[in-house]
Fold Signal recognition particle receptor FtsY.
Amino acid sequence: MFDGLKDKLSSFREDAAEEVEEKAAEAESVEAESADAPRAEGAEAEAADRGDAAPAAEPAGSGADAPAVGEDEDATAAEEAAEDDGSAASTFRRAKAFATGKVIIEEEDLEEPLRNLEFALLESDVEVSVAEEIVDAVRERMLGESRAQIETTDELVTEALHDALLDVISVGQFDFEERVAAADKPVTIVFTGVNGVGKTTTIAKLSEWLEARGYSSVLANGDTYRAGANEQIREHAEALDRRLIAHEKGGDPAAVVYDGIEYAEANDVDVVLGDTAGRLHTSNDLMAQLEKIDRVVDPDLTLFVDESVAGQDAVRRAKEFDDAAAIDGVVLTKADADSSGGAAISIAYVTGKPILFLGTGQGYGDLARFDPEALVDELLDEE
């Protein structure tokens, strides 16, 4: 899952570590040269003590060359030269840090790797503002940072990337099962999204997920618009041995979900899972249906379903649906077929609403609770 993005992040880590290590090696060389200089001066002093010193310079005005510049003047001249040369100043700072057991990370180390990271994120369908946020966060965490020489630069790069990814992925996260457990029963969950993204199958999967945790559920088919919708969800209900509440094609979707709630109340069922017609945010009549369901039923949660492989299209649609009829969370289907990971990285940051589940296969058990920390660990091979 998300193997393409994983490879791109690995390349960034390698490139950034290599750039920093090259500069550290230069600093080590400068520090070694500085350390050799005092030893040479000491040797000259020892020679003078033995009487081997060179003849003293002739007094001024005797025709000899002018006196040599003093050590203090040498140091001042070297510092002024370093200030005039940015590269030299950077190397000088690095050398001083290296002498104390530290390696400094500067802008020049990160410029090209960060540019490549941004391109890699965009190629993986990460939304533009999200890619920029990740790159800026990595830069902020690493610039001016120093590490002990006993540490590895890869560890520092990985930590910065880990924190930046986690910040954008985990926006709005809440514990879904805890929310269900704490809510008054029955809990009503309505599913929405565009047509053909696996919404009805996701409802069946969530019913099985709830069952495995001790929660009973009833399915309510509010998709009264599409021919064959009743037959499709009925197949799932029969396969799972769940009760299905459905009306004839063309019926009132809000009435169907409401009937599902009444059935749940009368039969001590914990959760009502309400399907709705696939729609675009520009379908005014269907959006009006969704608004009516929200008004009549007042669901505890409205979940937006889309395909992970849709990338930035999924991100855009999630934002549009949230603007039109507020959603509480997202389910991404086909995550097992997605190598880019752009939607998983971007949706929460763009909408402010969390990803709650990932569809990871065709079976009823192939629904995984979305764990931002686990995802970042997987992307960075930190498991």
Notes: The chain has a mean pLDDT of 82. DSSP finds 14 helices and ten strands in the chain. Residues 3-40+76-169 form a domain with the Four Helix Bundle (Hemerythrin (Met), subunit A) fold (CATH 1.20.120.140).
